[in-house]
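Researcher: Structure prediction, please.
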Amino acid sequence: AAGAPAMEFPHIGVHCALPECKQLDFLPFECDACHLKFCLEHKDYAAHHCTAPPPREDVRVPACPLCGQAVPVGEREDVNRKINAHIESGCPSVPKKHANPCSFPGCTKGELTPIVCKGCGKNFCLSHRFEDNHACVGRGRGRPAPAVATSSQPRTQAILAAAKAKPKSATTHGFATTKRNPEGDRRIRPEDRVMLAIQFSPGTGIPGRHMFFNAEWTVGRVIDAIAESTKGAIRNNNNVVPDEQKLHLFVKKTGRMLPMDRKLKDLTGDPATKPPLKAGDMVMLQRGLTLEIPRKEDKCTTSQQHSLIQEEKHMR
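Model: Predicted structure follows.
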């Protein structure tokens, strides 16, 4: 009725448990700490001055994000601090510092034994041990000085001393030795092998060798295998440099550059068709688009080079 009092239904609802309030609320809120019922205004802990300890909403044990190991955390301890303490005190997934770290900027590698550059005196990893790989500031300091003829040393003796210090040519007895026991992947079947005599750029000091390759390999893969056989003496960066700076393979007797995308079986075809390459031929691994041969009589003339380039385009 319109004239009914406000407390018409005292048996419905609950009064707020706060003594200063006692408001009748039909939808009261129960505190999950003290389990008393309050009105909307006093439902929060601070609003009704709750003295009971708040319940723990998440009782799961946190895990280390690196190793996944469970990290126990006390009731009033900070989770982040406990995980940081676990990581700093011996988390198994944290990499240990190397005893011989690499000095190259940005490199995090290290080796079990020190590899000290003779030029700058710094320690490097296997990837940056050569002077060219770490931009050595003391390039050439660790190399012995070449013999120089003086007034007290006859010119003949100076020439002999320089000849002894000069590396042996790649065309010496090294070829005969490697021909009897050529290098290559032993997993390649004998019937699939193509043997070539490899010679390197003049002045590198790398001895020549006989190597066999799979006939299904492209020239690019053959170049990778040859560079890898030098154990880092020749840096193979063909995937990042332009063509004029790449390693290329040349047939020494003709000066022809072999296309990198052609397979050996296509280049060593039927002898009746005069293929550009035959098994056992001597090839040279050099940088650039033209062949540099130390002997004058082996150099190609300008017209020969032009014809070779035209043939190269037709092959591609």
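Model: Residues 122 and 276 are 47 Å apart (CA to CA).
Researcher: Thanks, that helps.
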